[in-house]
Amino acid sequence: MSQPLPFPPYRLHDAYAAPARPRCELWRTGLGAAVILVVYIAAIQFLAGYYSSHYGDFLGRLLFNQMTLGATPGAMLVLLFSFLGMVLGPLIVLPALHSRPAMSLLGPSPAQALSDFLRVAGVLLAFGLATLILTLATGDLIRNPALSLRSFLLVLPVGLAGILVQTGAEELVFRGYLQQQLGARFRSSLVWMAVPAALFAMAHYDSALWGQNALAIVGWTALFGIFAADLTARTGHLGAAIGFHFANNVSAMMLASIPGQMDGLALWLLPIDPASGQTMMMLAVDLMSLIVAWLLARLALRL
User: Fold this and answer.
1) What's the pLDDT score for residue 259?
2) CA–CA dist 21, 1 (Å, integer)
3) What CA–CA distances, in Å, run from 253 to 155, 250, 273?
4) How far from each other are the two terminal CA atoms of the chain, in whole angstroms?
């Protein structure tokens, strides 16, 4: 078994991965990842069963499909909070398979993780608002006709909490569990950084929605995962990655979204077809914004 890379940018990653080192066998990590996936799927199936048992098969399936689309504020909130099922997986796996507390996923100091989260989220939310204002000036956005300003303000606190649950759950699994376990086992950052990012990106593949743009979305998401892993490795805590992810999703889900793409909480819409060539132009702009956001996060953390 080898150790993580010790060179200066990632010198704190060694301490971050240390709790995983005593039980970092690949079979444990693979089994743990499988259990986390099964628990999450079981939670979603439980939710589907709840809809059917309370509203009947037809209406239950309709409501469940609405939830998966996030087409209304209520459906979007249920979708976001359904990620509590993903949080449950690590709570089971860490003590049972690795004999360590789930809090160890956050890093050596939960207080420092919280500080990193607040600094990164604050800076990037300001960046997202500035980007929204500039985009509004171009006239490309339209108001979401299904969500009034009053309704948006009423749902805002719960929406932010839901996005925190969703992004925190994904980071606990990909930059927390997988990055720690692989970082404890392998020296190369190409393994502990790229493998979770690739799995994270593959989970976002949706050819039915994105059509010919589906692989481009996967590539963008993989780069996002690399940047989140980089922030985690540089800080030695998970807080910065959660803040990075949280701010990104607040901008994409509550400020401006694409119609039909989890737009139930979005105040503004960018009226394009996700499967059209316009999406590639949007991704080019988003790629530049992603790089700027990563650099701003490092600036906020003085890295």
Assistant:
1) 84
2) 9
3) 13, 5, 17
4) 29
Spatial CA neighbour of 239 closest among 157, 177, 173, 172: 172
3-class DSSP assignment, residue 143: strand
Share of the chain above pLDDT 70, in %: 97
Domain residue ranges of the chain, discontinuous segments joined by +: 8-301
Look up residue 10 and give its two tokens: 């990632």
Query: How many Cβ atoms from other residues are within 10 Å of residue 88's Cβ?
Result: 17
Task: State residue 8's pLDDT score.
Answer: 55
pLDDT digit string (tens) for 137-194? Answer: 888 899 998 898 999 999 999 999 999 999 999 999 999 999 999 999 998 888 999 9
Give 303 or 36, the one with higher predicted confidence: 36
Give the pLDDT of residue 28.
Answer: 95
Report DSSP state, residue 105. Answer: G
pLDDT 10s digits, 188-214: 888 999 999 999 999 988 888 888 888
Cα–Cα distance, 248 to 256 (Å, whole number): 11
Q: How many CA atoms lie within 13 A of 198 on its CB side?
A: 6
pLDDT at 272: 85
Cβ contact 303:235 at 8 Å = yes
DSSP assignment, residue 176?
I
Q: What is the mean pLDDT of the chain?
A: 91
Q: What distance in Å separates the CA atoms of residue 30 and residue 11, rounded to the nearest whole number? A: 26
Structure tokens at 147: 């969500």
- Which residues fall within 8 angstroms of residue 166, CB to CB, at 6 or more apart? 79, 80, 83, 249
Alpha carbon distance 7, 55 (integer Å): 57
**pTM value?**
0.92
Question: What's the rounded Cα separation, in Å, for the pair 242 and 83?
Answer: 14
List Cβ neighbours of 244 (8 Å cut-off, separation of 6 or more): 120, 121, 124, 227, 228, 231, 293, 294, 297
Which H helix or E strand runs over 140?
A: none
To the nearest 10°, the Cα dihedral for 26, 31, 33, 34? 140
